[in-house]
Design goal:
Number of domains: 4
CATH topology of the largest domain: TIM Barrel
Number of helices: 10
CATH class of the largest domain: Alpha Beta
Strand content: 25-35%
Helix content: 25-40%
Largest sheet: 12 strands, mixed
Length: about 550
């Protein structure tokens, strides 16, 4: 009996040791992603799950969510489950049954592969990815127009900039300078000069351009606003204005002064953060903006409150976007730019309105064969032929045709192999001037009482969006113009001027007048614009 008990104990101890040893066993897997058609290795995004469905920590790879926790994105956000694989890489993985989920950029389908590594010490795993769309072959190049990095080392920042844009399928990134009193000591992106960006371009294959976020904040409010100055020759000083952000000085310098200096140097001017700030309308009215960013830093406003009112008031503002702090989303602008272009040449295409924004769905849009940014003189036409197409790795719901800010037609997305497509063919009456654009359903403001449509999200848990810049239709030389919207802009400009005069801090009357002149000039421009547009309607 004693022998039997002893033998049983020994057997249990041996079994425990074997189980522990198996739990510690690992396998070195050389993992490669390839383009399924060409067989060429490509960068991408992946996550690996154990048999319990838990995500493995992949020490050899860059976390896709690097840095996002420093800007308020929590550890449970989906981005933190993904890693970046920039090239074929040897990974030390548990020697067990694992599931690999992976994709590349926005143009490849997701591949899910189960592999059993039990009893193995080495393994080569190649995963081919199916490409369902090729924007570059169609002449489109993508860019993130608004990016800063903070609270990471220079080594981490270099790796991030070399690996993440390529894995995300971005062609160009504008890395911009930003100042905020004391906090900017940890803004690592401020340390990159033009020579650094040129070296990053050479080393990574991504085109890097420079920029500056020129901004003013009022204590307790948005202030005059924020604007991206892209492809600058020198920093526009002061970079940040007002005691609301710099804890010193006054509100005596308008954003417009920096815009004019940068424009004189050939920079491209992109307003930030939807309709944030008091000075956006003044710079729209006086024609100082090349494009408008929306959703760069989150969905805090809507198409209706930014682009649609500008377009309805008769102003041609191209759509643009970026991500602000880190690349927490796939947000980018595609520009119809032909063959590979420099960041500077890409900006010229953006200013012309040959663009669409997206964080997932890919768009094509023509009206009588013309594209976004174009103008069609419909004097002798009875109707216009509209063709819209959309592609997406994930379900984007539908395509929507927008005319003068209203959805007038839609087409549902359908599953096609491992991705989704939609096509819209529609005829529009050509008897009246209008503007037209193609979009997927608008990302909702979460407190929107009109939210009835299902919300489609991408792999990082972000509400999907895609929207082309406008295409313009004239009749008898007249563009679409809504006088009520334009007059509303005049009221808002007056209210902004009164608020600034009463509440903002100035060193003297001359400084106050310098800022208020921005709004006085904008009001004069708006009144002239209304008179000119109204005279054409007669």
């Amino acid at each position: 009996m004693r022998v039997s008990i002893a033998m049983t104990c020994a057997a249990l101890i041996g079994l425990t040791l074997i189980t522990a040893r198996r739990a510690d066993e690992s396998c070195t897997v050389t993992l490669t992603l390839t383009d399924a058609q060409t067989g060429i290795p490509i960068p991408g995004i992946l996550r690996i799950k154990n048999p319990d469905g838990e995500n493995l920590a992949l020490q050899e790879l860059l976390p896709r969510g690097l840095g996002v926790g420093k800007v308020g994105i929590g550890p449970d956000n989906p981005i933190n489950s993904w890693s970046v694989i920039a090239k074929p890489t040897a990974l030390k993985l548990p020697a067990s049954k694992l599931t690999v989920e992976t994709f590349s950029g926005l143009e490849y389908e997701t591949a899910t592969v189960t592999v059993d590594l039990s009893g193995k010490t080495t393994e080569n795993l190649t995963i081919p990815l199916q490409r369902f769309y090729n924007a570059a072959q169609r002449g489109f190049r993508s860019a993130n127009t608004h990016l800063h990095l903070m609270k990471i080392s220079r080594q981490q920042a270099d790796r991030y900039l070399k690996e993440v844009p390529r894995a995300d399928g971005l062609d160009i990134v504008f890395l911009s300078y930003l100042e905020r009193v004391t906090a900017d000591r940890e803004y690592i992106s401020n340390k990159y000069n033009d020579a650094d960006l040129a070296r990053m371009t050479k080393d990574s294959g991504t085109g890097f351009g420079n920029g500056e976020e020129h901004r003013h904040n009022f204590s307790g409010g948005d202030g005059y606003g924020h604007v991206m100055l892209l492809n600058i020759k020198k920093l526009i000083l002061p970079v940040s204005i007002g005691p609301g952000i710099m804890k010193s000085g006054t509100d005596g310098i308008p954003i417009q002064r920096g815009i004019d200096t940068a424009r004189g140097d050939g920079a491209t001017i992109v307003w930030c953060h939807n309709d944030q700030g008091l000075e956006d309308l003044a710079n729209v009215a006086t024609g100082r903006l090349d494009a408008q960013n929306i959703f760069d830093g989150g969905v805090s406003s809507s198409y209706k409150h930014t682009f649609y009112r500008y377009l309805n008031a008769g102003f041609q503002i191209p759509f643009s976007t970026g991500t602000d702090w880190f690349m927490y989303d796939f947000s980018r602008v595609y520009v119809d730019a032909g063959k590979y272009v420099t960041p500077q040449q890409w900006l010229q295409g953006l200013s012309s309105g040959k663009s669409y924004i997206t964080n997932g769905p890919l768009l094509e849009f023509t009206v009588n064969g013309q594209k976004p940014g174009d103008t069609i003189a419909a004097d002798n036409l009875k109707s216009l032929s509209v063709v819209g197409r959309g592609w997406g790795r994930l379900d984007f719901g539908k395509l929507e045709l927008v005319q003068n800010g209203r959805v007038i037609h839609s087409a549902d997305a359908r599953k096609e192999n491992g991705h989704f497509t939609a096509e819209l063919n529609f005829t529009v009456d050509a008897s009246k001037p209008c503007w037209l654009a193609l979009r997927t359903p608008a990302p909702p403001l979460r407190n929107d009482p009109e939210l009835t449509e299902p919300v489609h999200q991408n792999e990082f848990g972000r509400d999907l969006f895609a929207h082309t810049s406008a295409l313009y239709v004239t009749v008898g030389g007249r563009r679409y113009f809504d006088r009520t919207v334009a007059e509303g802009m005049i009221r808002e400009l007056r209210e902004s001027r009164d608020t600034i005069s009463a509440e903002y801090k100035f060193a003297d009357d001359q400084a106050r007048a310098r800022v208020l002149d921005v709004y006085t000039d904008a009001l004069a421009a708006m009144n002239q614009h209304i008179q000119k547009s109204a005279s054409k309607e007669k």
